[in-house]
Amino acid sequence: MIFVDVMKELPATLVIRPFNFDTLAIQVYRFASDERLPEAALSALALVIVGLIPVLWLGRQTHWAD
User: Fold this and answer.
1) How many structural domains is the chain composed of?
2) Number of C-alpha atoms within 13 angstroms, CB side, residue 43?
3) What is the pLDDT of residues 40-50, one digit of tens each?
4) How far apart are the C-alpha atoms of 20 and 18, rounded to whole Å?
């Protein structure tokens, strides 16, 4: 669950990231701020899917998804 929160935490990522290193959240932010919404949508969808995988896995581990 920490991985999912860290992956989507945009303000902290913007402050402490190394130069020339962009995460999916930064990529979505840049595309959306440039009003390039089709490109932002693809990255945002990838971010949601990557975040959904651990949630589904944890749900199966706790027998939530039965």
Assistant:
1) 1
2) 18
3) 898 888 888 88
4) 6
Is residue 23 domain-resident?
Answer: yes
- Mean pLDDT (whole number) for 29-41: 88
37's tokens: 């919404």
Count Cβ atoms below 10 Å from residue 24 Cβ, excluding itself.
19
Considering the domain boundaries, does residue 47 fall inside one?
yes
Provide the 10 A C-beta neighbour count for residue 25: 20
Q: Which range of residues forms the domain containing residue 40?
A: 2-61
Q: What is the DSSP letter of 41?
A: H
66 found inside a domain: no
Reported pTM: 0.60
